[in-house]
Amino acid sequence: MARYFTDEHEWIDLEGDTATVGITDYAQGQLGDIVFVELPEVGSMVEKGKDAAVVESVKAASDVYAPLSGEVVEVNDSLDDDPALVNSSPEEDGWFFKMTVSDKSELEGLMDDKAYKSFCDGL
Amino acid sequence: MSAPNASGWKPGTPVQDHNAMAGPDTVTGNRALMLEEPLIFEIGTTETTGVDLPEPQSGSNRLGGLDRSEKIGLPGLSEPETIRHYTRLSRQNYAIDLGLFPLGSCTMKHNPRLNEKVARMPGFADVHPLQPVDTVRGALEVVNELAHWLIELTGMHGVAMSPKAGAHGELCGILCIRAALEARGDAREVILVPESAHGTNPATAAFAGYRVEDIPANADGRVDLEALKARLGPDVAGVMITNPNTCGLFERDMKAISDAVHEAGGFVYCDGANFNAIVGKVRPGDLGVDAMHINLHKTFSTPHGGGGPGSGPVVLSEALSPYGPLPFTARTKDGVVHLVEEGNAAEFEHTKAFGRMTAFHGQMGMFTRALAYILSHGADGLRQVAEDAVLNANYILRSLEDVLHAPFGHSGPCMHEALFGDKGFAGDISTLDLAKALIDEGYHPMTMYFPLVVHGAMLVEPTETESKAALDQFIGALRSVAERAKAGDESLKTAPHYAPRRRLDETLAARKPILAWEEPNPPGGAPSMSEQGGR
Amino acid sequence: MRYLPLTDADRSEMLEKIGASDVDALFVDVPEEARLDGPIHGLPMHASEMAVEKHMRRLSKKNLAAADAAFFLGAGAYKHHVPASVDHIIQRGEFLTAYTPYQPEIAQGTLQMLFEFQSQVAHLYGCAVANASMYDGSTACWEAVAMAGRIARGKKRKVVLSGALHPHYAEVVKTMAKFTDDEIAHARPAMQAAPDNDGLIARIDEDTASVVVQYPDILGRVTDLAPIAEAAHAKGALLIVVNTEPVALGALKSPGEMGADIVVGEGQSIGVGLQFGGPYLGLFAVRDPKHVRMMPGRLCGETQDAEGKRGYVLTLSTREQHIRREKATSNICTNSGLCALAFSVHMTLLGEAGLRRLAMENHRLACIAADRLAKVPGVSVLNDSFFNEFTIRLGTDARAVVRKLAKQDVLAGVSLGRLFPDHADLADGLIVAVTETTTEEDIETLASALEEVLA
User: Fold this and answer.
1) Which of the 8 DSSP states describes residue B452?
2) Do B291 and B339 have their domain in common?
3) Residues B462 and B326 in one domain
4) pLDDT > 70 in chain C, percent
5) Are residues B442 and B488 in the same domain?
6) B-contacting residues of C 101-130, CB under 8 Å?
7) Do B177 and B311 belong to one domain?
8) What are the chain B neighbours of C76 within 8 Å (beta carbons)?
9) Could you say which of A35, A38, A60 has the minimum Cβ distance to residue C323?
């Protein structure tokens, strides 16, 4: 399994043709206490770079862009009851949704762990 | 400015070490005049009532078999309990009647009580909106007279009186623009809005079907005229400019902005939230504005009431007036004031109205108050209102700029509000902490984190109804908390300490929303509300 | 000027501190040509309290106050007795002159009141959650339509309006829909004893996002909403129920109980008074708590303070314009706070027992009025069912009759000609509202006046 990162602070775990998407520890730290996550509908098509989800803190609502194009196949329902998972476990239990990957060439240009870390250090 | 007040207290002097004042806990949870009050659902019962009404009599029933048989769950209290409940609640509120309320952009000025008396006159308070017009000519005259003065004060051509609040007025103005463009077959898609604008501006433009694009600001905190000109084109329906703007500055280039927008075939919407700074001094119509809403609860002192009702008449240029919504009033040459509605719009040659904003004629209860305010001040008084509001704000700006960062302090005088930022605060002490410390000093905080263009923004609007002594005391308090913020005083982070509540957990409220009272025990369990009995 | 505390000495001292020569130096950014050099044209100089009061009283006296007439107007605004305590409470400065409760530690009075208000409205409507109020019933109605559109995520664009929805409410919806590309299917009102539910249901299709029904309807009729809810839900549409007379819900089943998804209405009847149409009080509630995040307007919620004490805050604000800007659920930025307080105080004074008695008294008197008016030659009562308002047919232009009777201080009702100027066949209809403030003597006055004018 390979993990990729975007400069919008999302992580993507790729397993076969399915990607799991969430926001990074750095992102949750910037957003503060997460109070709600609006997830896409299962079965909906998302397009790389376009709105896919919204993550809300008390005073801000931030769009989460789809890191890749494809179909949403599963969403993390436990975020409905416990949005704080995004703060406590952003890169594991706090995942947002799973999607099929229609075009693997879209992975080009994404960062790996090391590159993302130095990207954040530079911010 | 350091003169002691009558009680001997001096700005910047702590009253006493509060730890030495701390007393024992109380069994009631009350602390003398600070009284805890339960919910009506916890103290009332469904059988109690504070209104004497006849017991239901048997008679005919034509409710179509839809009688409400299930319990509704509404608690009642007797009259003395009701008065006490709400009086106790009222004492947990800050209000202009208690002290200076420096919320920038919100214009918390004194609410004259004459206006309350006038609004309650039976000819205004006790008339139905659909009474035959011959029985409400006086009410129509009030609407018309206020409309007249709003037109005169703004130098515009017409006014739509029906919008129910500022944001509703904004919508009305933008819909007039859209209707005017559509009438000439011109489908434009974009409204330009400065970054510093209030959130209602983009929300309104988006609602009216427009795409919103930002207008950049220059280093002075004003609209960048050249950047704006560069963006104008056949796709731009108009601009929404707040003037004076949300940084508290007058848009010097307003006329040039209007000319450029008109040249490009667009319209100019002016957010009139800050009209109080220029009323009687400058007429927006002379600056080329096509539409501007006026918050009667700001400039013309109708009460804010804990969040409304507002009232947002929109003045319109000659180009937009034909599209204004129904209903409205019109005075004919014989002096009679008419109500123009769907049924008689053609008689008054008003056939292009874009529609109707609300069921009835607007906020009559606010019109009477605003008219009483305008007549009380008169031409000389209104001018003085603007001058004193601007004077008070500049006094605050210049008295505090040595201790608080004033990002546009170099841009010339401010108008009715002074803008500061959080630069120089120690460690992780924030604007929020400073605001909460101001609560301990007995003040409502200023507007925080708005406009978005200044980090940790603090927007201070004193209004014209504050005395110099009141300003000096406030300046002393704000200076003190600013100094503590810069010195890294950690006690700011736990403020307020002396309010009816300590800092409230907004994260908890949003994560697990509890938005209505629910019986603490499920049905069939412990006694329900009505069985518990009241006090 | 009595509202301005600064003295000339203060002003000079302050100008000196600022470093400005005179006050005009503070207006230096206003271009010369835009500055007014003289007073506003025609506006007199400042006036004393006595003089202003006199002027306003003169205008007030030119109106016929409801209390001075035999009064039967309704159609969206009703004359009810408001207890004296209500006006006393809303004039307390701590409520009257407070701002929106953005600093919750010093606004618990307003916030707790709003929490109680939301709870009262939710109970009254048979819903899970109500918001902290909207401008009025008509704008709340449009906001409900817009919300249903958001829930349909723009996939359904059709809005089916009942023909018996208040025409001004329908007009507001149609006005706003012009700008949002929603398709409005609006029928004309039918002058029948019961509303045409079958016709309404037939207009609901797969593309329908919401169905809007008034209860009791503009002609005063009441109908079981459950079949309409069922039909709407079968097509994936939401049922929006509009109520303009909250007192009715002390006697009638709640819309939520019958399956309405969004319930909106006018709260003016409870505590607010007639006020020539405003300010009024928009009520807005949803039956299913999952729809809360799609709601417009302010919401007050319970939480705790740093010491664990219960308190209240405005919450879920990310829906609102000040955070979401162009993506907000609505551009609304205010509520009708003081009117919500008036409603809440009046409702607390009534309590459930009082509300039920008030409702039954309204209904009793309305039944008496309907029976009496039915006996007037030429008059027929349209309704099979009603609460405190019903429609009569006069066999002649009702608008002219209303105007004639007004000259005798009889305000007979709202003519359908006033409300539906384009529908000549409705012109003989008159909506008559009867409340606890109506006396049997008033009813007799109206009946005799009608007998005379129709003879």
Assistant:
1) T
2) yes
3) no
4) 100
5) yes
6) 101, 103-110, 112-113, 115-116, 118-120, 122-124, 128-130
7) yes
8) 129-130, 359-360
9) A60
Split chain B (535 residues) into runs of 10 and give each run's mean pLDDT.
48 55 85 94 97 88 95 97 98 97 94 98 98 97 97 96 95 96 94 88 90 90 94 96 92 95 97 94 96 96 94 97 95 94 93 95 97 97 96 97 95 94 95 97 95 92 97 97 97 96 95 91 47 36
Q: For chain A, list the domains and their CATH numbers.
A: 2-118 (2.40.50.100)
ipTM value > 0.90: yes
The three-class DSSP label of residue B150 is helix
Specify burial of residue C39 (Cβ count, 10 A radius: 0-12, 13-18, 19+). Answer: middle
Can you give the pLDDT at residue A73? Answer: 96
HSE-CB for C212 with a 13 A CA cutoff? 36
Which residue carries 């769950």 as its tokens?
B73
CB contact under 8 Å between B281 and C172, yes or no, is no
Burial of residue A87 (number of CB atoms within 10 Å: 0-12, 13-18, 19+): middle
**Strands B337-340, B418-420: pairing kind:** unpaired
Structural domain including B507 reads 29-49+74-92+500-535
| Chain B, nearest residue to C125 by Cα | B72
Neighbours of B133 (CB within 10 A): 19
Report domain C66-81+353-454's class: alpha beta
Q: Which residues in chain C are contacts of A35 at CB distance < 8 A?
A: 318
Tell me: do B282 and B344 sit in the same domain: yes
Which chains does C contact via 3+ CB–CB distances below 8 A? Answer: A, B
Residue B404 lies in a domain: yes
> What pLDDT does B492 receive?
97
Domain termination site, one of B318, B346, B371 = B371
Domain boundary among B371, B392, B411: B371
In this predicted structure, the answer to whether residue C363 has a pLDDT above a threshold of 50 is: yes
What CATH architecture applies to the domain C84-345?
Answer: 3-Layer(aba) Sandwich (3.40)
Write the residue in B449, B506, B511 that is nearest to A83 by C-beta: B511
For B141, nearest residue in chain C (alpha carbons): C59
The size of chain A, in residues, is 123
Query: Is residue C138 a contact partner of residue C212, using CB atoms and an 8 Å limit?
Result: no
Domain count, chain B: 3
Could you read off the pLDDT of C216-266 as tens digits, one per residue?
999 999 999 999 999 999 999 999 999 999 999 999 999 999 999 999 999
**B236-242 vs B267-271, strand pairing mode:** parallel
Task: Give the number of beta-carbon pairs within 8 Å between A and C.
Answer: 17
Q: Residues C129-169: pLDDT tens digits?
A: 999 999 999 999 999 999 999 999 878 999 999 999 999 99
Residues of B (183-222) whose Cβ lies below 8 Å from C: 198-200, 202-209, 212
